[in-house]
Hints:
Layout: E1 2-7, E2 10-15, E3 44-45, H1 47-56, E4 68-72, H2 86-92, E5 99-100, H3 120-129, E6 137-141, H4 151-160, E7 166-169, H5 172-177, E8 182-184, E9 207-208, H6 210-219, E10 229-232, H7 236-240, E11 259-260, H8 277-286, E12 295-298, H9 305-315, E13 323-326, H10 329-336
Amino acid sequence: MALALFRNSSKVRFDLQPKCRPKIPTNLGAMCRNSSSVSLQSYVVSPKELADALTKNVPTKISTSPRIIPLCAAWFMPNDPQGRTGHQAFMEQRIPSARFFDLDAVKDHDSPYPHMLPTAEVFAEAMQNIGIRKDDELVVYDTHQLGLFSAPRVGWTLKVFGHHNVHILNNFRLWVEQGFPTESGEIGAVVRDKSNYPVPDIDPSKVVRFSEMKEIAKDFGKEGSEGIQVLDARSQGRWAGTEPEPRPGLPSGHMPGSINVPFSDLLNQNTKTLLSRAKLRDLFKSKGLDPSKPMISTCGTGVTAAVIDLALTEAEYGESDDRRLYDGSWTEWAQRISETDGLIKKSKP
């Protein structure tokens, strides 16, 4: 059965399957007011947890309380066979009253590498334009098509810029399949006014730059080195150098000593949700990861590296202060390393 309502020129859909009829309101924007608000407790939240929290935290025109806001981080690879875009996915189906964080726009526009962290000013302007306030509680989610993919990168970015009240939905595919409401079309009056989001400070302790990454790679295996573990989220073929990179002209391969942890291995193959804590811990152990040593996540452009970071956080594997992300990832590495450096390795078939 399908029920459709129109609100703010957006079409709101409820897809209720006979086997799964969650108790949900008919409109997330006009739920019954409840004097007791709910704050989400864990970094990774389920669809039901988000729906319950939205039900009990309905913003009003006069309310100054922190809001719970779904934040869509939809993004597709540049070589997507269907030519899909994140904004297109947001317009076609989203959580009601969600805002859109554009990974292809909120970045360092002066860098030749994609998805490098933006300046604090660019980040603040982006948050202002979508009406996000500093005290808002944000729940970041992906697309129904891909499952967990780009949301962790946006969640990580928010924390780098000091917005710590953030969660990751696990995931939008389940939100849709379990019959929770979605809407489509123009966002209408959802973003009524820009916010006054302040220009934040960046937390450099979460980010690895190229110069440091190069020194780590050169020191790999040397006596007295720190034993930093580099985790690569790309596919096994790209990591091994037997499959091409999606960006033309970019060689495949891996950094010396890096460990291949394809982000897809961290997800349930059917639902594309993050695996359970126990399964994640078992997987990390099978890769030989030592939780007592520092870890750096990397990938193609810094997007799916954040899936590894999310999985490490959820599995409580290693100290949070010892987990970082290489922002430029393989796209920067393969363009800045010369053949004479000997720092692009390939595995024999």
